[in-house]
Amino acid sequence: MNILMNARGATSEEKQRGIDAAREVIKRSGLTPEEAAEGSFAVEGWDDMGFPPDQEPSEREYAAAEVWWAASNAAIKACCEGWPDEKRHEVHGLQLLHDPETQLVDRVTALARLRAIIQAEDGKNEFHDERIGLLAYAATDDMADGSLARELVMAVTVAYTPLACSQFTPDEPIEPKRQAVLDAIDALEAGSAPRH
């Protein structure tokens, strides 16, 4: 099943315990993780749109969403067994695993790949490279301080936007934009360094 635990500060064994619990819930439902997640996305998207009556999710989507939420709750409960309440606040449950080679890399690999992508960026791409955010999250996965991790990731993704959109500002030099992202990656590296 293509799922992973979004559980900051959890050990790999705790995350696996959560994934195993989620798999059991999803397996009993007869759905795939993707089907369950799509139901959740449909319901949450409808909420984000302000509940327009003509776009209400189907009964099937509601049922699938319930499975995803039950699986996520089971994952959190299993992963966080014995944890203090304040540590549980950094656990957000399940995520679909779209790109294992990006989402599951270790910190050092994530940082190296981030720098390589930024060095190769020519600002002429039609779309943002989604790997930037995924790699930044992977680099901060072991950080206990979730707020700081989110700030570091956001700084990288915000700095990346002008570089990725350089085609819209052809009169502006690209190198300062590239350097701004590299500086944000340096800050992410320093901020996510293991504390001994």
Give an account of the 3D structure.
By secondary structure, this protein is mainly alpha-helical. 62% of the residues lie in helices and 6% in strands. The protein has 9 helices and 2 strands, in the order E-H-H-H-H-E-H-H-H-H-H. The chain has helices at 12-29, 33-48, 59-79, 85-88, 100-103, 107-120, 131-139, 146-164, 175-191; strands at 3-7, 91-96. Strands 1-2 form a two-stranded antiparallel ribbon. Helix 2 crosses helix 3 (59-79). The longest helix has 21 residues, at 59-79. The mean pLDDT is 91.
Radius of gyration: 19 Å
Q: Name the overall outline.
A: globular
Uncertain runs? none
Number of helices, where a helix is a run of at least 4 consecutive DSSP H or I residues? 9
Number of strands: 2
Overall pLDDT metric? 91
**What separation lies between the terminal Cα atoms?**
35 Å
Helix content: 55-70%
Q: What is the string of helix and strand elements?
A: EHHHHEHHHHH
Summarize the structure.
The protein is mostly helical and 196 residues long. The protein has helices spanning 12-29, 33-48, 59-79, 85-88, 100-103, 107-120, 131-139, 146-164, 175-191, and strands at 3-7, 91-96.
Topology of helices and strands:
Elements: E1 3-7, H1 12-29, H2 33-48, H3 59-79, H4 85-88, E2 91-96, H5 100-103, H6 107-120, H7 131-139, H8 146-164, H9 175-191
Antiparallel strand pairs: 1-2
